[in-house]
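Design review, sub-item: ligand-bound model
Attendees: FS, YL, KQ
YL presented the inputs for the NDP complex:
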Amino acid sequence: MTKTVLITGATAGFGAASARLFAQNGWNVIGTGRRADRLQGLKDELGDAFHPAVFDITDEEAILAALETLPETFKGIDLLINNAGLALGTAPAPGTKLSEWKTMIATNVTGLVTITHHLLPTLIERKGAVINIASVAATYPYTGGNVYGGTKAFVRQFSLGLRSDLSGTGVRVTSIEPGMCETEFTLVRTGGNKEASDGLYRGVNPLTPADIAGTLYWVATLPAHMNVNALELMPVNQSFAGFQVFRE
Ligand code: NDP
Ligand code: 8X3
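KQ shared the predicted structure:
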């Protein structure tokens, strides 16, 4: 039977690559995001396998309206990929905007738990799965990571807690924690600074959206008795550094 995946944030990066990969492998794909033109582009490319659902993940009414008006063939959601998210700003805490902190929390935390809560009954009924996109920033703090890292630590711990709560239901839950991957992420983070974005990835040979899509597809298609709890991945050229020490 055809399976259905709902991927939040399918207009770019990991989400768009995953929409393509799942559709190419015979899944029905619901792709979400605010940019309707991008979702229409995927619809043109992927045809009947793709349903565009345009909404802002921070708007609960819009989420509900989109879920209630799903075409019949897309109603039975087997897999929720909570991917929509963003970082805003690279400054240490005193130089940040509170509004940007609130947007990160509204998107990466409140939006993610809202859509998850609304889809839980369907996912339980279908013994489905949830894959949440956290980040290496969930585990490793870095200067300027402040609230972004905090939101991703929430995503990681929420995933593990959800898995615990869903014991006995057959629903699988996974936290995927990537390091540097070249997408629109750094453009968004820097307010559209292409030079900064290009500079960050230059010479790194970073992860690609296709790498992440392949990982998500692998997790989603493991035998039903296997659960990947959490999976951290980085490009070979990214690793760990020491603590910073301020000397007076
Ligand atoms: P992109 O900026 O390329 O894509 C982000 C996606 O999130 C877009 O589709 C965007 O859609 C969507 N999105 C953002 N805000 C909202 C909103 N308010 N409502 C609906 N959709 C929203 O970044 P990535 O593909 O890199 O990021 C995907 C996820 O991966 C994020 O959660 C990010 O934190 C995480 N991540 C990224 C890493 C990286 O190095 N790139 C590493 C680790 C984790 P639209 O703007 O159309 O609404
Ligand atoms: C994005 C990866 O290292 O820029 O989640 O925080 S990082």
